[in-house]
Structures are given as structure tokens and as C-alpha cells.
Amino acid sequence: MTGYPKVAVVILNWNGRYFLEKFLPSVFNSSYPNISFVVGDNASTDDSIAFVEKHYPTIRIVRNASNMGFAGGYNAVLERVDADYYVLLNSDVEVTEGWIEPVIAMLESNLNMAAAQPKILSFHERTKFEHAGASGGFIDAFGYPFCRGRILAHTEVDTGQYDDAIDIFWATGAALFIRAETWRASGGFDADFFAHMEEIDLCWRLKRMGFRIGVCPSSVVYHVGGGTLSASNPRKTFLNFRNNLMMLQKNLDWWPACRVIFIRMWLDLVALLQFLFKGRLGDAWAISRAHQEFLWYFFRTASKRKRFLGPFRRRGTYNRSLILDYFLRAKKKFSSLSERDFIR
Fold first, then answer.
1. Total domain count for the chain?
2. Distance between CA 212 and CA 148 in Å, rounded?
3. Fewest CB within 10 A of the end CB: N or C in the chain?
């Protein structure tokens, strides 16, 4: 890499004093020479911004007038940030020494690669991959996302088995490196998603624009996860189920979208019944609400399809049902999935 493109590390905050205090030191001490730091704030009501202003006066604060969620919040903040590359970094991420340089070098040497992520390990179980991103994201034939190192709820121990830099289907929003010009050309996140799966939707859109997505495991960060919404929160269940259906409607061609969404509705019903059986009534109702809102916004979501500039590039797609492989064939590791079932 010759020269140093301008990198802006942008952390979106909402009442995150604890995480900012804990993790800003590692981020702020990053060694990359041409860097700026921005904390975007979604109308926090705690003292998190006062903390940053007092202890990190050189960090720029960009305030949103309301809590616009992860998607809308980042859209609003990045409109006011000038850089060659944006690094969208969750506030609950601890970075390691030299974490920026390898990813930027990979993007600089692959000009048709729009976005990339580092390897994401668990902050609390540091030898294991973290759920949100692991060593690169993929998607199955019915829209279920998974990662190298994480399939559904099962996360693997990191033994270096996924340390090769490869093309992936989606890069995690927990530590997303993206070219600023490509961010602007793509329209950024879909603000209607609010939070969850907005990065998968964005990466899918980028692929339809002709770009590649990559993972750079030589860069490592540690993610707490669930800092805003825990995995057991029905609000998270609602957003995941609704946004997944919206993402399929937006990104698949018409006939595959109809077929896959029809099947997913039935699979979601199975999940709803499972939650009822476990007594998790809030999660069961969240799935019902997700379907209702998906149908309510059906035509609004359909209108976004016209923005696509090219055919669906399926590289990084697992051409089978991950659910069947996981529950019926006990395939709980990425390495147990057959390479011939991936579209390369």
C-alpha cells in the first residue's frame, strides 16, 4: 500500500457510557497514521457524550436529533464525515494493535472490493468466534445468515482454521470497513430496518452493483455483543424476522423472492410454535408482528428494488437449507458444510 488513505472510525452511540469508557482507549490508540475519530450520538440521555468531550476532546461529536436506530443513525452521521474509508465500529468492540492497516491494504489492492471486515472474536470467551460476524458472513438458499465460525447459535473455537482472506457474502456491521464513495453510491443502510441485518442488505446491494465483499482475518477485534439488545429480547426477535423478509423481497429476483418468502413464512411459523412451546410468548408474538409489518410495508419495500444496477451475484451463497443441515444432519461447523454446495 502506497500512501495512507484517510480513514474515519465512526462509533454510533446511544446511552453507551460504559462501553465508551471501557473500549475507547484501545480504539483511540490505533496506530494508523491518517485517521480521525467520530462518535455519532443517537440522542443519548446519559452522560456518554459529556464523558467523551471531557476525556477525548479531539474526537469529533456528531449529534442526531433523535434515536434513529443503527441504520438511520449511521446514515445521518456519515453524511457529515469526510474520508476515503469509513470504519463503522460498535461501541462494545475492543481492537488489537494494527487492526486497521491489513484491512485497508486488502481493499487498496482489490479495487472492486467495496467492503470488508476483520476477524471477530468473543470478548468474554476470547478463544471463540463471536456471533456477529466471526470470520466472514454467508447466506443459505432461504436467506438464513451464518458465518465461518458460527452457525445459528453454535460458535466455534478459533484455531486458525478460517485465517485465509476470502470473498464472503456479507461483512458484519460490528466492524465494517467500506469505501466512502461506494457507501454514498449505494445509498448506505436502509433506514427502515432500524437495526439488525442492515449490513447484510447493504452487502447484497453492493454485490448487485458489481462489487466484492471480503474478510481479512489478519486483523482481529473482540466484540461483546448484545450491548443494546440482548439475544433474549423480543424486540430483537421482531427486527430479525421482519428485516430478513424485507431483505429477501428487496434483493432476490421476483420469482425466487416469491418462492423463498413463501417457504420462509412456514419456517417462521415453526419457530413461532417453538417459542410458544418454550413459554416465550413475547418472542412468539414478535414473529407474528414481524409478518404483519412485512405485509403492511410490502409495496414500500418493493419500490426499492428498482435501485439495483445489475444481476444477482450469488458468490458466497450456500445452495442448501442450513436449517435442515443443522438440525437433521448435525452440521454445526462451517467446515462440515460441503464446498461444492457453495457458489464461488
1. 2
2. 17
3. C
pLDDT band at 3; cut points 50, 70, 90: confident
pLDDT band at 342 (very low <50, low <70, confident <90, very high): very high
Q: Is the dihedral of CA 16, 21, 24, 28 positive or negative?
A: positive
Residue positions counted in the chain? 344
| Residue 341 lies inside a defined structural domain of this protein | no
Residue 45 shares a structural domain with residue 124 = yes
For residue 333, pLDDT over 70 is answered with yes
100-135, pLDDT tens digit by residue?
Answer: 999 999 999 999 999 999 999 999 999 999 999 999
> 146: closest CA among 316, 329, 328?
316
Asked whether residue 159 falls in the same domain as residue 304, the answer is no
Q: Is residue 328 part of a domain?
A: no
Instruction: Give the H or E element holding residue 133.
Output: none
Domain identity same for 211 and 275: no
- Rounded Cα distance between 37 and 53, Å, is 12
Give yes or no: residues 157 and 257 share one domain.
Answer: no
Sheet holding 150-151, edge to edge: 154-155, 150-151, 145-147, 137-140, 317-318, 342-343
Domain containing residue 47: 7-223
Among the listed residues 237, 11, 219, the one whose alpha carbon sits nearest the alpha carbon of residue 117: 219
Write the pLDDT tens digit of every residue in 64-106.
999 999 999 999 999 999 999 999 999 999 999 999 999 999 9
Residue 333 lies in a domain: no
> How many other CB atoms are there within 10 angstroms of residue 130's CB atom?
28
Q: What is the pLDDT of residues 172-220, one digit of tens each?
A: 999 999 999 999 999 999 999 999 999 999 999 999 999 999 999 999 9
Are 218 and 237 part of one and the same domain?
no
